[in-house]
Amino acid sequence: MNCCVKCGHPTTEKIPLGDSKVRQVCTHCGNIHYENPKVICGALVTWQDKVLLCRRAIEPRYGLWTLPAGYMELFETMEQGAARETWEEAEAKIEIESLYCMYNIPRIGQIYVLFKANLVDGQFGAGPETIESRLFAEDEIPWEELAFPSVQHTLRHYFEDRKQQQFPMHLETIGSRIDETG
Ligand code: ZN
Predict the structure, then answer these.
(1) Shared-domain flag, residues 105 and 66
(2) What's the Cα-to-Cα distance from 63 to each of 21, 57, 59, 132, 145, rounded to whole Å?
(3) Whole-structure pTM over 0.85, yes or no?
(4) What separation in Å is there between the alpha carbon of 19 and the centre of ligand 1?
(5) Ligand 1 being an ion, which residues bring their Cβ within 5 A of it?
């Protein structure tokens, strides 16, 4: 049973007046519990010809490599979120260059926003959620040990775009139901 976040009474599933979707609605105060996609901000951080990856010290995908990224917080911008996550996970200071990749992941209600960024001083470390961070050249990327499809897509775009030295924004949908059912 679900409870109302406002008053603690049970909620029930129904379509509110004027709405078209089933929501959890409080049986006592009528509060409607909307669930909306979450935004994940992160950065593709480069230093000289290398990219910064973090090995996850948390589930899911413990031990696999990822780009520094995480849930956007209230009252921050996406750029601030990306910089904050990079600091928290990789103890690295970044200078954001441009918006680089946006991924819809409708199956799990997520939106990824990844910025292209430079490492400011070449310094990085490992925050509590990270086993280790490392700079990888293209031929060192652990393609088989990447944590998420978004990481793989972003790295592929980067090494492809780097050949032309042009980095347009990439907007894609990952893992849609259509993809999964073939
Ligand atoms: Zn309530």
Answers:
(1) yes
(2) 39, 6, 9, 9, 8
(3) yes
(4) 19
(5) 4, 6-7, 9, 26, 28-29, 31
CA 72 to ligand 1 centroid distance, Å = 27
Give Cα separations from 48 to 27, 145, 158 (angstroms): 58, 23, 14
Domain count, the chain: 2
- Residue 182 belongs to a domain: no
Q: With cut-offs at 50, 70 and 90, classify the pLDDT of residue 175.
A: confident
The per-residue pLDDT for range 86-124, each reduced to its tens digit, is 999 999 999 999 999 999 999 999 999 999 999 999 999
Q: How far is the centre of ligand 1, averaged over its atoms, from the C-alpha of 35 (Å)? A: 16
CA of 17 to the centre of ligand 1 (A): 17
What φ, ψ does residue 28 adopt, rounded to 5°?
A: -105, -55
Which amino acid is residue 116, in one-letter code? K
* Residue of 107, 104, 87 whose CA lies nearest to 96: 87
Q: What's the domain range around 102?
A: 38-173
Q: In this model, does residue 181 exceed pLDDT 60? A: no
| Residue 23 CA, ligand 1 centroid: distance in Å | 13
